[in-house]
Amino acid sequence: MINTPFFYRYNEVSTFNQWSAPTWDVFNKWWLEFKENVDLEDYKVYLGGSFVINPLSANDIDVMFTGPIYDYQKLYDKFKYGLDLSLNKYGIYVDLCWWDNVDFCSYPRNKDFFRYHNLIKMGGVEYKVLSDICVHDISHITFDKNLEIPEYLSFNRVILPMPKQRRKEYKFNPIRLN
User: Fold this and answer.
1) Can you give the pTM of this predicted structure?
2) Alpha helices by DSSP H, 59-169
3) CA nearest neighbour of 123 among 174, 68, 177, 83
4) Residues 175 and 51 sit within 8 Å (Cβ to Cβ)
5) Rounded to whole angstroms, how far apart are CA atoms 177 and 31?
6) Predicted confidence band at 176 (pLDDT cuts at 50, 70, 90)?
7) Over 60: is that where the pLDDT of 1 sits?
Protein backbone atom coordinates (compact mmCIF):
# COMPACT_ATOMS: atom_id res chain seq x y z
CA MET A 1 0.00 0.00 0.00
CA ILE A 2 1.31 3.41 -0.96
CA ASN A 3 0.45 6.16 1.52
CA THR A 4 0.12 9.17 -0.79
CA PRO A 5 -2.48 11.56 -2.21
CA PHE A 6 -1.40 10.59 -5.75
CA PHE A 7 0.74 7.94 -7.41
CA TYR A 8 0.81 6.65 -10.98
CA ARG A 9 2.84 3.86 -12.52
CA TYR A 10 2.88 2.40 -16.03
CA ASN A 11 5.52 -0.29 -16.52
CA GLU A 12 8.79 1.34 -15.41
CA VAL A 13 7.52 4.94 -15.45
CA SER A 14 6.09 6.41 -12.25
CA THR A 15 5.25 9.75 -10.68
CA PHE A 16 3.87 11.19 -7.45
CA ASN A 17 2.80 14.34 -9.34
CA GLN A 18 -0.69 14.51 -10.73
CA TRP A 19 -0.58 15.80 -14.29
CA SER A 20 -2.43 18.85 -15.58
CA ALA A 21 -4.57 19.32 -18.65
CA PRO A 22 -2.25 19.79 -21.63
CA THR A 23 -1.73 23.07 -23.44
CA TRP A 24 -0.16 23.75 -26.81
CA ASP A 25 2.68 25.61 -25.15
CA VAL A 26 3.61 22.73 -22.84
CA PHE A 27 3.12 20.12 -25.57
CA ASN A 28 5.41 22.03 -27.94
CA LYS A 29 8.13 22.16 -25.27
CA TRP A 30 7.74 18.42 -24.66
CA TRP A 31 7.83 17.67 -28.40
CA LEU A 32 10.97 19.74 -29.01
CA GLU A 33 12.83 17.95 -26.22
CA PHE A 34 11.48 14.53 -27.16
CA LYS A 35 12.46 14.74 -30.83
CA GLU A 36 15.92 16.08 -29.95
CA ASN A 37 16.64 13.05 -27.77
CA VAL A 38 14.94 10.23 -29.69
CA ASP A 39 15.75 8.78 -33.11
CA LEU A 40 12.55 9.03 -35.15
CA GLU A 41 14.12 8.26 -38.54
CA ASP A 42 12.08 5.09 -39.13
CA TYR A 43 8.73 6.50 -38.03
CA LYS A 44 6.09 8.96 -39.01
CA VAL A 45 4.76 10.58 -35.85
CA TYR A 46 1.29 12.10 -35.57
CA LEU A 47 -0.67 14.09 -33.05
CA GLY A 48 -4.23 12.85 -32.66
CA GLY A 49 -7.16 12.38 -30.32
CA SER A 50 -9.26 14.87 -28.43
CA PHE A 51 -6.37 17.34 -28.09
CA VAL A 52 -6.49 17.93 -31.86
CA ILE A 53 -10.27 18.36 -31.82
CA ASN A 54 -10.69 20.48 -28.70
CA PRO A 55 -7.51 21.12 -26.68
CA LEU A 56 -9.44 22.78 -23.85
CA SER A 57 -11.34 19.57 -23.05
CA ALA A 58 -8.44 17.11 -23.41
CA ASN A 59 -6.96 15.28 -20.43
CA ASP A 60 -4.01 13.87 -22.36
CA ILE A 61 -2.26 14.00 -25.72
CA ASP A 62 -2.17 11.08 -28.14
CA VAL A 63 1.07 10.70 -30.08
CA MET A 64 0.90 7.99 -32.73
CA PHE A 65 3.84 6.29 -34.42
CA THR A 66 3.56 4.48 -37.77
CA GLY A 67 6.22 2.75 -39.81
CA PRO A 68 8.30 -0.41 -39.71
CA ILE A 69 9.45 -1.73 -36.34
CA TYR A 70 13.00 -3.00 -36.63
CA ASP A 71 13.70 -3.26 -32.92
CA TYR A 72 11.03 -3.68 -30.22
CA GLN A 73 13.39 -2.56 -27.45
CA LYS A 74 14.08 0.73 -29.22
CA LEU A 75 10.36 1.34 -29.72
CA TYR A 76 9.73 0.63 -26.03
CA ASP A 77 12.56 2.97 -25.05
CA LYS A 78 10.91 5.77 -27.05
CA PHE A 79 7.56 5.17 -25.34
CA LYS A 80 9.15 4.98 -21.89
CA TYR A 81 11.26 8.12 -22.36
CA GLY A 82 8.34 10.08 -23.83
CA LEU A 83 5.94 9.20 -21.01
CA ASP A 84 8.52 9.82 -18.30
CA LEU A 85 9.44 13.18 -19.84
CA SER A 86 5.80 14.21 -20.10
CA LEU A 87 4.87 13.23 -16.54
CA ASN A 88 7.97 14.12 -14.58
CA LYS A 89 9.25 17.20 -16.38
CA TYR A 90 6.29 18.78 -18.15
CA GLY A 91 3.40 17.68 -15.91
CA ILE A 92 1.17 16.44 -18.73
CA TYR A 93 0.21 12.96 -19.91
CA VAL A 94 1.41 12.03 -23.40
CA ASP A 95 0.01 8.67 -24.49
CA LEU A 96 2.45 7.16 -27.01
CA CYS A 97 1.58 4.18 -29.17
CA TRP A 98 2.27 2.60 -32.55
CA TRP A 99 -0.47 1.97 -35.12
CA ASP A 100 -0.26 0.10 -38.41
CA ASN A 101 -1.65 3.29 -40.01
CA VAL A 102 -3.76 6.30 -39.04
CA ASP A 103 -6.45 5.98 -41.71
CA PHE A 104 -9.03 5.41 -38.97
CA CYS A 105 -8.98 9.12 -38.16
CA SER A 106 -11.01 9.82 -41.30
CA TYR A 107 -13.32 6.78 -41.34
CA PRO A 108 -17.08 7.31 -41.77
CA ARG A 109 -18.79 7.80 -38.40
CA ASN A 110 -21.57 5.23 -38.48
CA LYS A 111 -22.23 2.08 -36.49
CA ASP A 112 -21.92 -0.25 -39.50
CA PHE A 113 -18.44 0.81 -40.57
CA PHE A 114 -15.38 -0.49 -38.77
CA ARG A 115 -11.93 -1.90 -39.47
CA TYR A 116 -9.36 -3.78 -37.44
CA HIS A 117 -6.05 -2.08 -36.71
CA ASN A 118 -2.86 -3.24 -35.03
CA LEU A 119 -1.88 -1.30 -31.92
CA ILE A 120 1.30 -1.50 -29.84
CA LYS A 121 1.58 0.19 -26.45
CA MET A 122 3.87 -0.27 -23.50
CA GLY A 123 3.11 -3.55 -21.79
CA GLY A 124 2.91 -4.26 -18.10
CA VAL A 125 0.89 -3.00 -15.20
CA GLU A 126 -0.68 0.47 -15.15
CA TYR A 127 -2.23 1.80 -11.99
CA LYS A 128 -3.22 5.05 -10.34
CA VAL A 129 -3.68 5.79 -6.63
CA LEU A 130 -5.77 8.77 -5.45
CA SER A 131 -5.97 9.51 -1.71
CA ASP A 132 -4.59 6.05 -0.89
CA ILE A 133 -7.23 4.29 -3.04
CA CYS A 134 -6.31 2.44 -6.21
CA VAL A 135 -8.69 3.83 -8.86
CA HIS A 136 -7.07 2.32 -11.94
CA ASP A 137 -5.35 -1.05 -12.20
CA ILE A 138 -4.96 -2.83 -15.53
CA SER A 139 -2.40 -5.05 -17.18
CA HIS A 140 -1.42 -4.38 -20.79
CA ILE A 141 -0.61 -7.71 -22.43
CA THR A 142 -0.51 -9.25 -25.88
CA PHE A 143 -3.55 -11.53 -26.01
CA ASP A 144 -2.40 -13.58 -29.01
CA LYS A 145 0.23 -15.83 -27.42
CA ASN A 146 1.38 -17.01 -30.89
CA LEU A 147 2.98 -13.61 -31.49
CA GLU A 148 6.58 -13.11 -30.43
CA ILE A 149 6.13 -9.72 -28.79
CA PRO A 150 8.29 -8.89 -25.74
CA GLU A 151 6.33 -8.52 -22.49
CA TYR A 152 7.38 -4.89 -22.13
CA LEU A 153 5.09 -4.15 -25.11
CA SER A 154 1.49 -5.14 -25.78
CA PHE A 155 0.30 -5.87 -29.33
CA ASN A 156 -3.42 -6.15 -30.01
CA ARG A 157 -6.02 -5.70 -32.71
CA VAL A 158 -8.44 -2.88 -32.11
CA ILE A 159 -11.79 -2.20 -33.79
CA LEU A 160 -11.93 1.37 -35.08
CA PRO A 161 -13.57 3.74 -34.93
CA MET A 162 -14.35 3.14 -31.23
CA PRO A 163 -17.82 4.18 -29.99
CA LYS A 164 -16.52 7.56 -28.73
CA GLN A 165 -14.90 8.14 -32.12
CA ARG A 166 -18.18 7.66 -34.00
CA ARG A 167 -19.44 11.06 -32.90
CA LYS A 168 -19.42 13.59 -35.73
CA GLU A 169 -17.26 16.04 -33.82
CA TYR A 170 -14.58 13.39 -33.36
CA LYS A 171 -13.60 13.31 -37.03
CA PHE A 172 -10.19 14.89 -37.56
CA ASN A 173 -7.04 14.66 -39.56
CA PRO A 174 -4.02 13.75 -37.47
CA ILE A 175 -1.24 16.33 -37.45
CA ARG A 176 2.08 15.06 -38.77
CA LEU A 177 4.82 16.04 -36.32
CA ASN A 178 7.97 14.99 -38.15
Assistant:
1) 0.90
2) 72-88
3) 83
4) no
5) 9
6) very high
7) no
